[in-house]
Specification:
two-stranded antiparallel ribbon; about 75% helix; 2 strands; mainly alpha; about 375 residues
């Protein structure tokens, strides 16, 4: 009986990973391209080839940011394919979370009342879990509608019901819940950092990449932006800096262990995206997460690098995703230890992935 229960848990965990891979893998290439473009843009600005006030920068930055700003829409489409729901209803619900008039109010922290039901302030840009959960639930609403609504009026009544139910769930429950969880994580980090910078750095450096899976890193990044705007420096970005390198090291190790030539190309693309653009979703969803251990190995590397950065008081003086090309934003106190921590994080992710046996050539 216990063995059967254990098998069910294993199957459930594997299915969950398969679902996430099915949702995110189709988007990995465009994420890689956008991440590399952001990295290139950062280099052009730091070398004074482009000015942040110029029109060329504005257009290039829009091209790089579009994928991340409208990320819920991409996720809505792939979630619809994964859960076998109507892709147009899913897209409409994903776009709802970005609708300017509503989004501006909710992101400011204000509450909107919908027939007396409070829709609490939340951040939806670049978020994905609210959309995934909404599309998943809407799949059941669609099936119920097909059974209950007469076929002659189903064509327009079913979308109305799905959008009303899905919109209320997305804006009333899933979005606020995700923001609340993220804010609690941010508060815990700030408290722990006040007690032990090294422990806080190790914890956040190790957890931030698993947090990316659920988009829980965004509240932390918002706190980071606010810290830089108010004080001119931030420790959150510094202790997170080694995390992409840890995932890149793990993905590179998978590249060497794999015998699938097509998959090897995916691994290299993921490594470059993580190291140059600071975008780790391709490494996570296309390479490391489906194989489980490489994700853990990369996270251990991130934890080691984060602990080093925290111990030496490393900080960022500007906001950008941690990567090779954005290392100059950490110039100042603790810069050399941070760079060493990133190198150790990369090496740890690589070595731990190479030396521990796991199924490398499973189909993600």
């Amino acid at each position: 009986m216990a063995e059967t229960s254990n098998k069910k848990r294993i199957k459930s965990g594997t299915s969950f990973i398969d679902i996430l891979s099915g949702i995110f893998m189709p988007i990995c290439d465009v994420l890689s391209g956008a991440g590399l473009l952001k990295g290139l843009l950062a280099v052009l600005v730091m070398t004074s080839v482009l000015s942040e006030n110029g029109g060329t920068y504005l257009v290039l930055n829009a091209m790089a940011d579009t994928v991340f700003f409208f990320f819920p829409v991409f996720v809505g489409l792939t979630s619809a394919a994964t859960f076998k729901t109507d892709k147009f209803i899913a897209t409409a619900l994903a776009c709802l979370s970005l609708y300017p008039a509503i989004n501006t109010i909710l992101e400011s922290g204000q509450t909107i009342r919908f027939f007396g039901i409070p829709l609490i302030g939340a951040t939806y840009q670049s978020s994905c879990i609210p959309v995934i959960l909404t599309v998943w639930i809407i799949g059941y609403v669609e099936k119920a509608s097909d059974r209950i609504i007469p076929e002659i009026v189903r064509g327009f009544f079913k979308p109305i019901i799905c959008i009303l139910v899905g919109g209320l769930l997305e804006l009333g429950i899933f979005g606020p819940a995700g923001t609340l969880i993220g804010n609690r994580i941010s508060s815990c980090y700030e408290f722990l950092y006040s007690l032990s910078p090294a422990a806080a750095g190790g914890l956040l450096g190790g957890l931030v990449q698993p947090m990316v899976i659920f988009s829980l890193q965004w509240p932390l990044l918002l706190v980071s932006m606010n810290n830089i705007a108010l004080t001119g420096s931030d420790t959150i970005l510094a202790v997170m800096a080694a995390a992409p390198f840890g995932q890149a090291g793990a993905s590179l190790a998978v590249f060497f262990k794999s015998r699938d030539k097509k998959f090897k190309a995916t691994c290299i693309s993921a490594v470059v995206s993580a190291m140059v653009g600071g975008i780790t979703q391709p490494s996570i969803f296309a390479v490391n997460l489906p194989r489980k251990w490489p994700l853990a190995a990369g996270s251990i590397g991130g934890a080691i690098g984060g602990a080093i950065a925290g111990y030496f008081g490393s900080h960022a003086i500007a906001f950008s995703f941690p990567s090779l090309v954005t290392l100059p934003i950490y110039l100042g106190h603790g810069f050399i230890p941070l760079v060493i921590g990133c190198g150790i994080g990369f090496a740890a992710g690589f070595v731990l992935t190479v030396t521990v046996p796991y199924n490398c050539d499973i189909k993600a």
